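SUBJECT: protein chain
CONTENTS: sequence, structure tokens:
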Amino acid sequence: MAVTRLKRKDRRNKAVSRMEKQRLKLATNIELGSRSAQSTKDQLAKNSAIIAQLEAAAK
């Protein structure tokens, strides 16, 4: 069975669609209360809290 080649317009649409999905994925905002909100147990959150404490103590 031969593999059919996409026409130029369809190849472009496929590429644009893929790039659009990637852009939307990267551009999504994390909203308060959403499931993707940063956990307080996350190492990055712990580091930020420690830095905030050190900055407050330095003042």
User: Anything to note?
Assistant: Residues 9 and 15 are 10 Å apart (CA to CA). The two ends are 74 Å apart (CA to CA). Residues 8-27 form the longest helix (20 residues). The chain has two helices and no strands.
